[in-house]
Design a protein that fits this description.
The structure is a homodimer of 362-residue chains. Chain A has 362 residues and is α+β, with helices and mostly antiparallel strands. The first copy, chain A, has 11 helices and 18 strands. In chain A, strand 12 and strand 13 form a beta hairpin. In chain A, helix 1 crosses helix 10, helix 2 packs across helix 3 and helix 4 crosses helix 5.
Chain lengths: 362, 362
C-alpha cells in the first residue's frame, strides 16, 4: 500500500478535471501555494489549461486521459459535479486520491437522490415528488399544489432543465418540454430571500464556513451576491450547522456550496448543494484572507483549513455574455475588482467574468 | 504604422522576459484580468512558465526566441532589469511594445549611471565616486571617508558584488575581491531606517504609489518588510515625490521599486531603484485591493491604474533557502498568508517564498 501523500508537499501536482473558470481560479490558488496543476479538459486551450503546467485534452471518460492525469497527480479534484462515476473510479484505480468523494458527486448529480439524502440527514427541503412518467404528475400536483417546479433529475444548471407548472392541466406539456426525462417536482417555497453558505471540510475532519451571502438570480442564473449578507450573524449558526451536517454525512473533503431559501420567519430550507467551489463564493477572492479556491486546495491537499473571517463585505456581480465587453469601463472603475475568465467565445448568459466591489462590513 | 494595441483587450497575450517568482506572480495577476501570458526563460519548467499559457525556452539574447516572443505578444515586460539592450531593441523591431522603457533598464543596470541620473533629477543619493581602476581609490576614500561601500557598477543584487572598505589601505584588496571590475564607491549613509516606495506610472502618465514600507535586510538580502511603515503618513508625500520624479524623468510605464535611506532627521536619500515589481511590494498581495503585480500589468497593458490604499498593514517575511521547508508549520499558521514560488531547487539565501501577516493599520 502506498504511503499517504498528505499533507501534499509544495511542488507536487494537483489534477483538476474540467477547464473552465472554476478550474482556472483553483489553479491560480494552487500556484500561490507552490503546487503545479494539471488540467483534464475536452477543449484544448481551456481557461484553466492556460494557467496550468499541463493540459491533458480528452473526454472525461477517456481511459487514457484519466490514466495520464492520475499518473501525473497524486491528488485529483473537480471543477464541476457531472463527472461520470466510472471516471472517478478510474482515477482511484490508477492511484490518485480523488476529492470530493464519489458519493458527493453521485448524490448531487441526481436532484431526487439529493433531496432524499438531505431529508435523511434531517434537513428541510422543498416538498417534492418523483416524476418518472406522465402518470405520476396528477397525484404529485395534487399533493404539492401549483405553481410547482418540474426539474430534470440530471444535468440541469443555471436554470436549464426546469419548467414551472402553473396549473394542474399543464403538467404533461411541461414534462414533454423537458424531453420526457425522469424529473422531480418541487412544491413552491415562498421564500423571503435566497442565501448560500460556502463551507469546507479538511482531511482532518476540520470544518469551516464563510459568512453567508445573499444571492439574486435572473432567469435562473446568478446575477449578484452580497456577502456577508445583511443580518448574517443571525443566520450564520444555522447555515453552518446545515453545511456541517451535509459535509459529515458525505465524509466530504473540499469546499461545498449550499444554496438555501430563507422563509419570512427566518427558517432555512435547503435548495441544493454543489460539491465544489461555487459562484456565490467568488466574493471571498477579495473579501477574505483565504478565498474559497485556496480553501479547496488546502482541503484536498490535506493542509489545515485557513481562516474564513471577512475583511470586508463584497458585492459580487457576474458578467454574463456581452456584459464582459464593458471591460474597458470596468478597468477604469476604481471600485471594481475585475476577474475575467479568459473564455474565447461569448454566448448569451455565459459566465465571462465577475466584479467584486468592497463594501463596509454589515 | 500599426494601430495602438492599447488598452490591451482581455484575451491578448502579454510577454514576460524571465521565469522566476516575479514573473510568476505577474502571470497570476494577468490571468485574473483575462490575459494570456507567454514567458521567455532560459530554464524549461520555470516557476513562471508553469503558470503561463506558453513558455519559450531560450537565452535572453537569442534572436529566434525574442522574435517568437514578439510575434506572440503585442506587449512585453520584464521581471528583472539585467536585460541586454539589444534584446529590448529586437523585441521592438519585431513589433512588440516593451515596458518599462529601455532607458530605465539601462540606467538601473549601472550603479554609476543610476546615481548620476538620480542627482541630475535633483534627488539626493549617497556621496559616490567612480572607481575604474585602483588608482582612483585613494582620492575617493579621501573625499568619502571610511567606512565606504565598494560596489560593482553592474550585476550586483541581494548584497552580491559589494564590499565594505574599513580603512584607507584596504581599498585595493576590496577592488581585487570584486574581480577588478568597474565599481562605484559609496560614502556611508548613517541612516535611521530603510524604507521603500512602490509606485507606478500608466501609459496615460497617471501616477500612483503604495504606502511606504519599512525594510530589514540581513546579509544584503531582504528579510522582512512592514507596510505601511510606522509613521508612514509623514514620509509618504516626500517618498511619492521622489518616485514620481524618477518615473517622469524616465518616461516610465509600469511599477518601480525605490529604496530609500531615512536619516535621523527624517530626510530621505535614494539608495537605488529597480525598474520592476519589487520584493518590498509583496505585502500588497494581501494588503491592498490591487497588488503591485496587477498594477504593473494594468500599466503595461495601457489600463487605468488601480487603487493603492491599504486594507491592512502587512508584515512580509521572506522564506530563504531551507526556511521554505517549514511549509507544514506555515500552512497551519492561521495568521500566515503563504506564497511559495514553485522553485525546484533550494540554495542558501535563495528566495523560495514569502509570508504575509496582517496587522492593524498604523
Amino acid at each position: 500500500m502506498p504511503s499517504s501523500p498528505f499533507p501534499l508537499p509544495p511542488g507536487a501536482a494537483i489534477g483538476i478535471v474540467g477547464g473552465g473558470q472554476l478550474g482556472r481560479m483553483m489553479a491560480l490558488a494552487a500556484a500561490r501555494l507552490g503546487f503545479d496543476v494539471v488540467i483534464l479538459t475536452p477543449d484544448a486551450g481551456s481557461p484553466a489549461g492556460r494557467v496550468a503546467m499541463r493540459e491533458i485534452v480528452g473526454a472525461y471518460d477517456d481511459p487514457v486521459a484519466l490514466a495520464t492525469l492520475a499518473a501525473a497527480c497524486p491528488v485529483v479534484t473537480f471543477e464541476f459535479e457531472n463527472i461520470p462515476a466510472d471516471a472517478l473510479a478510474a482515477l482511484q484505480a490508477h492511484g490518485a486520491v480523488a476529492a470530493p468523494p464519489a458519493q458527493a458527486l453521485a448524490v448531487s448529480q441526481d436532484r431526487l437522490a439529493e433531496k432524499a439524502f438531505l431529508n435523511a440527514a434531517g434537513l428541510t427541503t422543498a416538498p417534492f415528488a418523483a416524476i418518472d412518467r406522465e402518470d405520476d404528475i396528477p397525484a404529485a400536483l395534487e399533493r404539492l399544489g401549483v405553481p410547482a417546479l418540474l426539474k430534470t433529475r440530471r444535468e440541469g444548471y443555471d436554470g436549464k432543465g426546469q419548467a414551472w407548472i402553473a396549473s394542474p392541466d399543464a403538467g404533461a406539456a411541461a414534462l414533454h418540454g423537458l424531453g420526457g426525462r425522469p424529473c422531480v417536482l418541487e412544491g413552491k417555497v415562498a421564500f423571503h430571500r435566497e442565501i448560500s453558505v460556502i463551507a469546507a471540510r479538511g482531511r482532518d475532519d476540520a470544518f469551516c464556513a464563510y459568512p453567508v451571502g445573499e444571492n439574486h438570480h435572473e432567469g435562473g442564473v446568478l446575477r449578484r451576491s452580497l456577502a456577508p449578507a445583511p443580518g448574517w450573524r443571525t443566520d450564520q449558526p444555522r447555515a453552518e450547522a446545515i453545511a456541517r451536517r451535509i459535509l459529515e454525512a458525505l465524509d466530504y473533503v473540499g469546499v461545498i456550496g449550499v444554496e438555501l431559501f430563507q422563509l419570512a420567519d427566518g427558517a432555512l430550507v435547503v435548495n441544493e448543494f454543489a460539491p465544489r467551489v461555487h459562484n456565490t463564493g467568488h466574493w471571498t477572492l477579495d473579501g477574505c484572507e483565504v478565498d474559497q479556491f485556496e480553501q479547496h486546495i488546502r482541503a484536498v491537499a490535506g493542509w489545515p483549513l485557513g481562516p474564513t473571517a471577512p475583511l470586508a463585505a463584497v458585492e459580487m456581480t457576474n458578467l454574463l455574455g456581452v456584459e464582459a465587453e464593458a471591460w474597458q469601463a470596468l478597468a477604469g472603475d476604481r471600485t471594481a475588482r475585475l476577474w475575467l475568465y479568459g473564455k474565447r467565445g461569448s454566448a448569451p448568459g455565459r459566465k465571462m467574468g465577475h466584479v467584486n466591489r468592497l463594501r463596509p462590513l454589515p
